[in-house]
């Protein structure tokens, strides 16, 4: 049980460090694109919730295709950034 607590503490400590290793503009894109992907994966038969989801998709996904391409070009020499950005589909809009 104690070793599990130590592993969990190490993971929690590493999380912010990993985000801090990304350039600010990349970290902001990652946060926005993760929200985009979250809402793209949601669906609802309830009209009010479907409207909320559509609004969130619009707010978080619009422009991310072009921004992803731009960030990949700008940071092509940074393997960590390339790896992080490589997780995303290039076309979601």
Mean pLDDT across the residues is 85
Round the Cα radius of gyration to an integer and report it: 17 Å
Strand content: under 5%
So how many helices? 5
Number of strands: 0
**Helix vs. strand class:** mainly alpha
Amount of helix: over 70%
Question: What is the makeup of the main sheet?
Answer: none
Number of folding domains? Answer: 1
Instruction: Give the low-confidence spans.
Output: 3-17
N-C termini distance: 46 Å
Coarse shape:
elongated
Q: Could you state the order of secondary-structure elements as H and E?
A: HHHHH
Could you please describe the fold and organization of this structure?
With 93 residues, the chain is mainly α. The protein has one domain (23-93). It is built from five helices and no strands. Helix 2 (24-40) packs antiparallel against helix 3 and helix 2 runs antiparallel to helix 4 (64-74). The protein is elongated, with a radius of gyration of 17 Å. It starts with a helix and ends in an 8-residue tail after the last helix. Residues 3-17 have low confidence and may be disordered.
A few lines on this structure:
This protein is mainly α.
Helix and strand arrangement:
Blueprint: H1 2-20, H2 24-40, H3 47-61, H4 64-74, H5 79-85
Helix pairs in contact: 2-3, 2-4
